[in-house]
Amino acid sequence: MAPSQEKANHTLTPPMGPGVQSPSLEEPTAAVPPPPPKPSQQGPATVTPTGAATGAPPEAVAQQGMYLTTSQGARLRSTDHALKAGPRGPVLLQDHHLREKISHFDHERIPERVVHARGSGAHGVFVANGRASKICRAAFLGKDVETPVFVRFSTVAGFRGSSDTVRDTRGFATKFYTSEGNYDLVGNNIPVFFIQEGIKFPDIVHAVKPEPDKEIPQAQSAHDTFWDFVSLHTEAQAHVAWSMSDRGIPLSFRMMEGFGIHTFRLMDAAGETCLVKFHWKPRQGVHSQVWEETQMSAGADPDFHRRDLYDAIDAGAYPSWDLGVQVMPDTPEEIFEGIDLLDPTKFIPEEVCPVEVIGTMTLNRRPTNFFAETEQVMFNPGNLVPGIDVTNDPLLQVRLFSYIDTQITRLGGPNFSQLPINRAHCPVNDMFRDGFHQDAVHGGVAPYKPNSLDGGNPAEADDDSSGYIDIPTPVAGNKVRELSATFDDHYSQATLFVRSLSSAERQHLTSAYTFELSKCYEEAIRVRQLQCLANIDADLCAEVARGLGLSAPQPTTPPGDVEPSPAVSQLGKKWPVVGRKIAVVVDSDTPPDAVASVREAIMNAGMLPFVTAPRGGKLGDVVVDRTFLTAASIEFDAALVMVAPVPAPDALPAFDAKSGQDTTGRAVDPRVVKMVAEMFRHCKAIAVTPGATSVLAAAGVHEDAPGMVVAEPVAAVAGLAGLLASHRVWERFPARVTHES
Ligand code: HDD
């Protein structure tokens, strides 16, 4: 994937659509048509609830005409002043426009999602490679079939206005607008879940949400009620291990894996079935922030992930994911290699069952209107198409009820499927009528079956084209409130995960547990969680216990021997650098033509340059993207510092701490020094041109340290790209941390 030539020449300033004038300083007075939606931002095709294209232009459903009107279309003279009895008199109730304007405003907010409230979405396309046709009859999985998609990424715990970069599981929900109806794959970025049964969902959510007396903390799991629950409800331990790892603090939505978690049943054209688990594999690589970065970005840019997604799409660096499946035989016991496929707290290591790629999704359009699309989109794991079916996973079964139910409150009634973002892109004839916010003017007189008055319409499908085929499997048993004994093992997959991590990841995991448990007020909860850690891994338990100043308990269930799964580690691989962000740090001494060439070299490598200068405006023809005042180290994956004349003086300038200048007499800007020091600490690649080495000295960074490049600008870009392929300079992390050190 490379950015298109046209897109690659981005300026990182907001694009203006054709015919849209730059805003003037004065308030415009002449009437002009409303701006059309930007072609790159159009929502899905406008179709009626019965599927017929309306033919209406997209703007017909938005604002029309050149004049301000009431909601009924009457033109208005003024919207700045209420109608009053005299210029100093009381406001008159008679003012229709005032009442209508304020009343509509009073009802602008809808309830946020009870979980996953904070999220952002994008449109795109899924192209199947046809490999799944052997196992699944779904039309959208046929070779080269292109299906429009809308994806919403989210955090779970935080409110709608919370920060993007908190430690949390991320939602990864995809709506495929297929020719056979909408198919929703509503997954997360972690392959296991907290609970085995849906009936426990309110409990885990109540535990992680802010505590009910003070309503703190916001969007955090580092508090007593969360650790109280998960240390008692030990089936949560595997998920907790994943969310305490780097998986809980992704660098970008673009760089997360996605998992369907549950086992699904696929059926081919001949009626043969198999069991699968779905995986999304980001072509950008799987990368995370480091903990300090998450906290800095929560302050410097709470919209960090949202902005990153939209910046990448605007720059033409469209993120893409391969969709893959692990395919397992559909046996009566539904157990694979000793793992119960109905237990959503378990995953199947890729070394045990490889992931086979069945298609690729590319996100290439951001929404035109956040509320209409990202906020109003609804997902439902029960939205299935012919060929894809659920299993008896007791978590999934309850989800099938919950997602429709919640929309009735959140989207204000039963007609949420008629909202443009939720409409199927194929004919819909559901015989549902009336209800709040009914958008359709249905014809016919017989929304019931059987009927003769509408000629029998709608007809029923045959088995070949019908969704929701119930495979006639025998169901028997007493009514019980219990789970199969094959769900009893709560620890071995947490052990497997922990022992699959690299040293640096393991260090992050230890720090995360220690940090979170240190935030609990109740010692009994810390001790109880240490008991769980003892059952997962003795070293991990000992390290966390040391950090907490407690003693490590003996396990009650000693960890068994597990085969590690290298695939769960995010380290040790090489990834494409397309879409990675490079700060090009310059000042008034940097020759503009050198900046222009570096910018071009970065874009030629598929990366995104951000020219960062002491003040805004232009350097020659190059637009300054960030100033030293607005730039933050956390925004960038790497930096190229060229704050000095090029070519360099003979002797590399050093920093004189007393004067704050370098040995050539130039002041070293403390904001650049801070950025370099932070990026070094966060193990990011840093390049400096030979004339700028005093910045390194001022930041206390040695030019021979791992991941440092001292080179002429264009050569430095190649050096940075080489380092970025591993994401971070992992050698800078100490081999193993202990809390004594
Ligand atoms: Fe859920 C939203 C993912 C279990 C009940 N869930 C929601 C979203 C995602 C997930 C990504 C956000 C969708 C969007 O962007 O609009 N949920 C999961 C996964 C689960 C899971 C991967 C386990 C494997 N969820 C789960 C259970 C229940 C729910 C067991 C209830 C019993 N989930 C909901 C919900 C939400 C929701 C309350 C909130 C807003 C919404 O549905 O539309 O119904």
UniProtKB/TrEMBL annotation:
Residues 69-457 form the Catalase core domain. Its cofactor is heme. It catalyses: 2 H2O2 = O2 + 2 H2O. It is an enzyme of class 1 (oxidoreductase). It comes from the Bacteria. The active site is at residues 116, 188. GO terms for biological process: hydrogen peroxide catabolic process; response to oxidative stress. Its EC number is 1.11.1.6. Pfam families: Catalase (PF00199), Catalase-rel (PF06628), Catalase_C (PF18011). InterPro entries: Catalase, Catalase_AS, Catalase_clade2, Catalase_clade2_helical, Catalase_core, Catalase_haem_BS, Catalase_immune_responsive, Catalase_large_C. Heme binds at residues 113, 152, 201, 399, 403, 410. Residues 1-57 are annotated as: Disordered. GO terms for molecular function: catalase activity; heme binding; metal ion binding. One of its GO terms (cellular component) is cytosol. Keywords: Heme, Hydrogen peroxide, Iron, Metal-binding, Oxidoreductase, Peroxidase. Residues 43-57 have a biased composition (Low complexity). Decomposes hydrogen peroxide into water and oxygen; serves to protect cells from the toxic effects of hydrogen peroxide. Belongs to the catalase family. HPII subfamily. This is Catalase.
